[in-house]
């Protein structure tokens, strides 16, 4: 249905601007819309464009071609975000993709017909981003977002193939570093200094940071840890020195959700953490009895009984302790997780399967990828000479 356009010289209620020519209409869904123009000529031009687009939409809707293929890239991306990403992905993923679509994909490719996208055109789009100074990491995120959307378009039979395939390796230019962020752990001595300082000046946070250091759990998982699980069973089994990770707090969602890998797991505890948790629970029960209430549901809570989230307050405490210790301000709470992994792996690389399970990685290969640079020197010493030994043995056998 072509929108009905109503227009005329109308007073603009915005007092900061002069009266303008107002154009008002109802779109195909019946929703009323309006725009302001400086002159009747501009208004009439806008009316003509609205009617032209409406006619094109009517023609498209009567075609035998799938609707997604008839539309532009911008139109498809908008639909994909709402029907696929928002409905099936985490809130953080939707927020990231929406920003990439709005800032890069729609301005660069939005007006293209979806069916007209080809690998050379997509590659040229990436080159244009590079020419504008867009960093390598951002361009790779843009590529990942676009490729995901076009994979969905193939499934919807809007296009025959994904033009992003095989283009990922063509994004980096030879003058750009191609390094993933490296772990930034504390040394054992620095970690001990950090935790001693927490006990001295931030005693209420000792159990929290000690748990993070000794278990390698993510900060979101620590924030969502409850004494009793969803199924009514205990998540904290101090008799067997382990806790069950079944959720993680998501700042984007504002609530607890499944862990990052969507897998529940049991995490082993050190004797020190077990002792601290026993004492923590005792103090929580005593305080609840004194207040005439119930003990907190979450393990790590503040003075008001609310769970300690990975918010600004936790980071402020962490940064204050770093400063007091004279440690690098570049460290983040996540580095305690790196500290757990690297301390164990440098001491004994055969702990890899256990470390991987503690961290909640899907496979051991993920752990190796992140921490292969921390292979202990005791395992690599002398390996360089092995090639001479092999060559000499082969030569002597002839």
**What is the strand arrangement across the widest sheet?**
1-2-3
Strand content: 5-15%
From the alpha carbons, calculate the radius of gyration and give it in angstroms: 29 Å
| CATH uppermost class of the largest domain | Mainly Alpha
Using DSSP, what is the number of strands? 8
Task: Spell out the blueprint of helices and strands.
Layout: E1 4-10, E2 20-26, E3 32-37, H1 40-61, H2 67-70, H3 73-88, H4 91-109, H5 119-131, H6 136-155, H7 188-201, H8 206-215, H9 219-223, E4 236-237, E5 242-245, E6 248-250, E7 255-257, E8 265-268, H10 271-291, H11 312-325, H12 335-347, H13 352-359, H14 364-371, H15 377-380, H16 386-397
Antiparallel strand pairs: 1-2, 2-3, 4-5, 5-8, 6-7
Helix pairs in contact: 3-4, 3-6, 4-6, 7-8, 7-11, 8-10, 8-12, 12-13, 13-14
Kindly describe this structure.
This protein is mainly alpha-helical. It has 3 domains: 4-62, no CATH class; 70-170, Tyrosine recombinase, N-terminal domain (DNA polymerase, domain 1, Orthogonal Bundle); 188-377, hpI Integrase, Chain A, CATH 1.10.443.10. It is built from 16 helices and 8 strands. The chain has a 3-stranded antiparallel sheet, covered by helices on one side. The protein has a 3-stranded antiparallel sheet with strand order 4-5-8. The chain has a two-stranded antiparallel ribbon with strand order 6-7. A hairpin with a 4-residue loop joins strand 6 (248-250) and strand 7. Helix 4 packs across helix 6, helix 7 packs antiparallel against helix 8 (206-215) and helix 8 (206-215) crosses helix 12. The radius of gyration is 29 Å and the shape is globular. 24% of the residues are buried.
């Amino acid at each position: 249905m072509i929108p009905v356009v109503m227009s005329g010289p109308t007073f603009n209620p915005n007092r900061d601007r002069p009266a303008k020519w107002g154009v008002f209409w109802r779109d195909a869904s019946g929703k009323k819309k309006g725009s302001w123009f400086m002159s009747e000529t501009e208004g009439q031009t806008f009316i003509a464009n609205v009617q032209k687009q409406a006619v094109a939409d009517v023609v498209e809707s009567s075609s035998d071609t799938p609707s997604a293929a008839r539309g532009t890239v911008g139109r498809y991306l908008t639909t994909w975000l709402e029907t696929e990403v928002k409905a099936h992905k985490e809130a953080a993923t939707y927020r990231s993709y929406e920003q990439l679509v709005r800032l890069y994909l729609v301005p660069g490719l939005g007006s293209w017909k979806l069916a007209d996208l080809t690998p050379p055109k997509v590659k040229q789009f990436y080159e244009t981003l590079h020419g504008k100074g867009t960093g390598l990491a951002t361009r790779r995120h843009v590529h990942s977002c676009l490729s995901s959307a076009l994979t969905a378009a193939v499934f919807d039979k809007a296009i025959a193939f994904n033009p992003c395939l095989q283009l990922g390796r063509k994004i980096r230019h030879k003058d750009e570093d191609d390094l993933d962020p490296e772990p930034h752990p504390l040394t054992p001595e620095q970690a001990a200094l950090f935790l001693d300082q927490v006990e001295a000046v931030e005693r209420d946070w000792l159990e929290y940071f000690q748990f993070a250091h000794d278990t390698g759990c993510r900060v979101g998982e620590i924030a969502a840890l409850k004494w009793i699980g969803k199924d009514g069973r205990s998540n904290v089994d101090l008799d067997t020195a382990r806790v069950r990770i079944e959720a993680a707090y998501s700042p984007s969602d504002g609530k607890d959700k499944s862990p990052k890998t969507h897998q529940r797991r049991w995490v082993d505890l050190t004797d020190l953490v077990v002792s601290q948790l026993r004492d923590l629970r005792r103090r929580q029960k005593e305080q609840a009895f004194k207040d005439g209430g119930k003990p907190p549901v979450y393990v790590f809570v503040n003075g008001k009984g609310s769970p300690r989230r990975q918010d600004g307050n936790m980071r402020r405490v962490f940064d204050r302790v770093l400063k007091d210790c004279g440690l690098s301000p570049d460290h983040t709470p996540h580095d305690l997780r790196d500290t757990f992994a690297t301390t164990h792996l440098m001491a004994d690389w055969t702990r890899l399967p256990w470390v991987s399970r503690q961290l909640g990685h899907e496979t051991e290969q993920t752990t190796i990828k992140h921490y292969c640079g921390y292979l202990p020197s005791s395992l690599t010493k002398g390996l360089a000479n092995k090639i001479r030994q092999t060559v000499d043995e082969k030569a002597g056998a002839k």
